[in-house]
Amino acid sequence: MPIEQTPTPPADQRFEGRAAFRLAVLGLLHQAATQGWRELCLGDMDFQDWPLAESECAALLNAWARPGRRLAMLARNYDEVQRNQHRFVNWRRQWAHAVECRACPAWPADQGFGLMWSPHAVLLRINPAAHLGVVSYLPTRRVAAREQWNEWWAASTPAFPAFPLGL
Fold first, then answer.
1. What angle do CA 6, 60, 9 make, to 5 degrees?
2. S-S: 29 plus which of 24, 40, 60, 81, CB 3.0-4.6 Å?
3. In this predicted model, what pLDDT tens digit does every residue of 46-56 receive, in sequence order?
4. Shortest CA distance to 162 belongs to which of 75, 73, 97, 65?
């Protein structure tokens, strides 16, 4: 009788370039949707380079969004998202009860990075200018990324309301 082995997590998967970053983000969103990940955290200076305006991203977010799911977003500001990521803005309105957005204006520009975290995997864009980063399933990377996230989250304030108040 063969001994059943626990599968080892895949090694870190490096990416470089805008197209590879896009595929990494969409790949993790696909996993989140198909595997039922309950929590996602997205962090970036302004989400300018994220594929949030694409129909494929909106479809994956729709497939992921279910009762009990939570998306937390952190940015220096959301001007770029509101100006150019219209599909995401509309999706955020539809799922306002499951999305919490916060801003950290004091986030130093020289510490720009991109992060997509879940309890299952993490995407780290280490060099935003070159779109250089890694997707990792290793617990040590996920824990370190969550600790970094928690520091920025603690220094942030609510931002990017789903339904802005106006006169």
1. 15
2. 60
3. 999 999 999 99
4. 97
